[in-house]
Amino acid sequence: MIYFDNSATTIPYAESLRTYQEVASKIFGNPSSLHNLGTKASRILEASRKQIADLLGVKSNEILFTSGGTESDNWVIKGVAFEKERYGKHIIVSDIEHPAVKESAKWLSQHGFEVSYAPVTSQGFVDLDQLAALLRPDTILVSVMAVNNEIGAIQPIQAISELLADKPTIAFHVDAVQAIGKIPTQSYLTDRVDFASFSAHKFHGVRGVGFIYRKEGKKLQPLLTGGGQEGDMRSTTENVAGIAATAKALRLVMDKEETALPKIALMRNLIHDELAKFEDISIFSGMSDDFAPNILTFGIKGVRGEVVVHAFEEHEIYISTTSACSSKAGKPAGTLIAMGVPTKQAQTAVRISLDDDNDMSQVEQFLTIFKQVYNKTQKVR
Ligand SMILES: Cc1ncc(COP(=O)(O)O)c(C=O)c1O
């Protein structure tokens, strides 16, 4: 089996699963309980929060746990909107955001807010001049992802931070779900960023855990009310085992970054160079440093992405038609459409997303099978 769909989800690390099992079976108390089982659970929870905060270079009280990337995005987008609505009702999200952001913004637009979509260039980067032109006195929130999940384009978070430097009343949110462990933390957690979203299953943690970074002092309405957990910001009994497993996974991923990222880039570059030799290939991801090293999105001209995905699946090679969410819906990649790629061409797109788990022999097997798939689809082309 060759798993090249790591942007959809990663295989949990064995160490992370072991931590989950240990904590779930031995430190099972409810962190809110007064007895010592509760205290033990609460200590693990806070130690995990501190470890994650330290790894990201932020403060412990700036990390709030959630159930994943989607909840993190929903919470920030809606929570900021409701918190700041007395100052204005205009929000801006980029045109290539994940549905977790875009749909949250759309929901707000059905509940009295106005949403503008910041366009991207033909390469897939938010257009700074057009973003600047959308800013208004009643703008309360700007949300731009750090790394695009469909083509890997690294968004100009530093430049947007500068653009917003003299507009402190606008909250700046960054969806960092695809960025963590792939690009340097300081490139997307700038001093100007107020909120950021993360998801554990994208970095070898377990499913059902995420967190947000909320800069100290920045206000957000809670979405879950109840027993007052997470400083009264998100009520529900904490997933202590999942959170401990998340801290473990993050430490491992960050420890490996220095060796893993060049290795991943090498594999990605080799695949790119080989694919580029074929005539009927469109390559949608760029290869410069402005793109994350792990993602390569391409298409075989005239052949729908799902046909290619299933052809590889026959050989137990797992890739995807761009994002996992758009693939089942059969929609072409929203990012490609926003870049101006014609729909027919966008429908050919498939994404491979690599990880340190992968190796060169898998790359070679992938390329061998690619030749077969390419030849098999000759008639369609
Ligand atoms: C950029 C981005 N944001 C948010 C999400 C949603 O994360 P989750 O699956 O943890 O809800 C994803 C998942 O693919 C993503 O790629």
UniProtKB/TrEMBL annotation:
Similarity section: Belongs to the class-V pyridoxal-phosphate-dependent aminotransferase family. NifS/IscS subfamily.
An annotated Gene Ontology molecular function: cysteine desulfurase activity
InterPro entries: Aminotrans_V_dom, Aminotrans_V_PyrdxlP_BS, Cysteine_dSase, PyrdxlP-dep_Trfase, PyrdxlP-dep_Trfase_major, PyrdxlP-dep_Trfase_small
Name assigned to this protein: Cysteine desulfurase
Highest taxon listed in the record's lineage: Bacteria
Record organism: Streptococcus henryi
Positions of the Aminotransferase class V domain: 2-366
Keyword Chloroplast attached: no
Assigned keywords, A-Z: Iron, Iron-sulfur, Metal-binding, Pyridoxal phosphate
Cofactor section: pyridoxal 5'-phosphate
Signal peptide start-end: none
UniProt cross-references to PANTHER family, sorted A to Z: CYSTEINE DESULFURASE ISCS 2-RELATED (PTHR11601:SF50), CYSTEINE DESULFURYLASE FAMILY MEMBER (PTHR11601)
